[in-house]
Write a structure and sequence with these properties.
This protein is an alpha/beta fold and 512 residues long. The chain has 18 helices and 13 strands. The chain has 2 domains: 229 residues, Growth Hormone, Chain: A (Up-down Bundle), CATH 1.20.1250; 224 residues, Vaccinia Virus protein VP39 (Rossmann fold, 3-Layer(aba) Sandwich). Helix content is 55%, strand content 16%. The chain is elongated, with a radius of gyration of 28 Å.
Length: 512
């Protein structure tokens, strides 16, 4: 009788263990899903955290992605070793991930210090110091999950595959949720707080019997350490007042005021537009120069297309000198349009039609023709979007011009020397499409320094000699080394601009 009762108890226990296996398996897959989502959300969020101080240029993205991948690899290795030694430490690993993610918020205060090391080394060091630790700890989660779940050697492949699949699906979800929902609608600090809360919940869930007091104590330690860090200030800017900041779907947008006299629009840490407040006048020489060139070559335009709104300085200039003109501005980010109307346009209700769309997409679908097309679009600091600087893009612009219409292209480059490759490449590409061109410089006496260059192109035989004579001092006649022909198949303009971005970074950094 005793043997029968023992057998029945064993049978019931076996059935309970069998019934518990799916729940156990799903809980591990859930931990893999959420931890994987946080890894990619941290990467997407990281570029937004770095951009106000270090920009979002090609090198910053490379350093960020490389740091995350390298840290994950280190975490996989360390996690495998520790899981073999003590597979019960998963709650501690998740708790450590929560603590390191919490510290990211407070370490943001020190980002301006990293800029002293330059753009490349500064962004690499910032990524390693701020995002390396949480990425490493999060990388340790998957080996622990595999160790816990693998109690049958014949199912190792299926088990590990399921966990990595759940982690990857979570990463996909984190990428889309971060890019399309969280970042545009919530402050970075709120998002980080949500990540920390999720990791704390996963730590408690994975422990099962862990006392909540341990979690509370760990959070308290993290908060105390973070509070001590927050006592230190890394604000180096002098007389800079931050009027506005928002992370949109596309950029980190800031409006800063310098000494109450100058207002600047910075996008991903790079100055994109500005205005003088006292007295009210144009701030940047390139706006005045390009505006006067347009006014001279096209005194009475009936229509104009501006690709790249920014602070809407050029659309406003055209409206002022040609009140009857129909001005269409293509600005990809509706939040930048809202900021321009609030902080930069003299008359927010002026007759400027805005299309919130990518400039190249607009050109591909456009069927209208304009007297003037002005291209002033930038992405990643002082680098223009590669797809707007190709031969195919210029063909689209040529088709969008009325007979006798002009294309005006604002770029940042030197005119000669090693920093002139952007200018040389764009000029070569424009010459493939347009019959005539002229180039004007905001620094006519210094050809080797980065500067605003205004390239004017048209399919007419020649520009008016009288109109060009007015700007003879600013006109560039020299022809440097031949550049690269930029096409949709090969357009490394963002990489070509890296030396210019590095050169200009120290000057722009003081206004952040």
């Amino acid at each position: 009788m005793a043997d029968l009762q023992t057998g029945r108890r064993g049978l019931r226990q076996g059935r309970r263990e069998k019934d518990a296996q799916p729940a156990f398996r799903y809980s591990l897959l859930g931990i893999a899903f959420f931890s994987g989502g946080i890894v990619l959300l941290l990467e997407v969020l990281g570029t937004r955290i770095l951009s106000p101080f270090l920009g979002s240029s090609f090198s910053v993205w490379v350093n960020m992605i490389g740091t995350i991948l390298g840290s994950l690899s280190l975490g996989y290795y360390l996690g495998g070793i520790l899981a073999d030694r003590n597979p019960k430490l998963l709650p501690v690993v998740l708790l450590a991930a929560a603590c390191t993610c919490a510290l990211v918020h407070f370490e943001r205060r020190f980002l301006s210090y990293f800029g002293t090391f330059g753009l490349d080394w500064g962004s690499l060091l910032a990524a390693l110091v701020i995002f390396g630790p949480p990425s490493t700890v999060l990388g340790m989660v998957s080996p622990y999950l595999i160790k816990i779940a693998t109690n049958n050697p014949e199912r190792i492949g299926r088990t590990s595959g399921g966990i990595y699949a759940a982690s990857t699906v979570g990463s996909i979800a984190g990428t889309f949720a971060g890019g399309f929902w969280l970042i545009p609608h919530f402050p970075i600090s709120y998002i980080l707080a949500g990540m920390v809360a999720t990791l704390l919940a996963l730590s408690l869930w994975s422990a099962g019997t862990m006392k909540a007091a341990w979690v509370i104590a760990a959070v308290s330690v993290t908060a105390c350490g973070a509070g001590s860090l927050s006592l230190l200030s890394a604000d180096q800017a002098i007389n800079v007042t931050h009027l506005f900041e928002k992370n949109s779907r596309y950029y980190n947008i800031r409006v800063n005021e310098i000494g109450g006299t100058v207002r600047l629009l910075t996008i991903d840490g790079a100055i994109q537009s500005g205005r003088r407040l006292n007295p009210e006048q144009i701030l940047f020489p390139y706006v005045e120069l390009s505006g006067k060139v347009i006014q001279s070559l096209k005194p009475n335009p009936r229509s104009a297309l501006v690709i790249g709104g920014g602070g809407y300085a050029i659309p406003q200039y055209i409206i002022e000198y040609a009140p009857g003109a129909d001005v269409t501005t293509v600005e990809i980010d509706p939040d930048i349009t809202a900021v321009a109307k609030r902080f930069f346009l003299k008359n927010p209700d002026s007759r400027i039609t805005t299309v919130n769309e990518d400039g190249r997409v607009f050109l591909n679908r456009n069927r209208r023709q304009f007297d003037v097309i002005y291209t002033d679009a930038y992405a990643g600091g002082n680098s223009m979007p590669p797809h707007l600087a190709t031969r195919e893009a210029f063909y689209r612009m040529s088709q969008a011009l009325k007979p006798g219409g002009i294309l005006v292209f604002n770029i940042v480059s030197a005119r000669s020397g090693r920093l002139a490759i952007v200018y040389a490449s764009l000029l070569r590409t424009i010459q493939e499409v347009f019959r005539t061109h002229a180039v004007f410089s905001t620094l006519p006496d210094n050809a080797v320094e980065p500067q605003n260059l205004i390239i004017v192109a048209s399919n007419i035989d020649n520009f008016s000699a009288d109109a060009l004579r007015l700007f003879e001092r600013f006109r560039c006649h020299e022809v440097g080394e031949p550049g690269i022909l930029l096409t949709d198949d090969y357009s490394p303009i963002d990489i070509l601009a890296q030396d210019v971005i590095r050169k200009m970074y120290p000057e722009e950094r003081q206004f952040q």
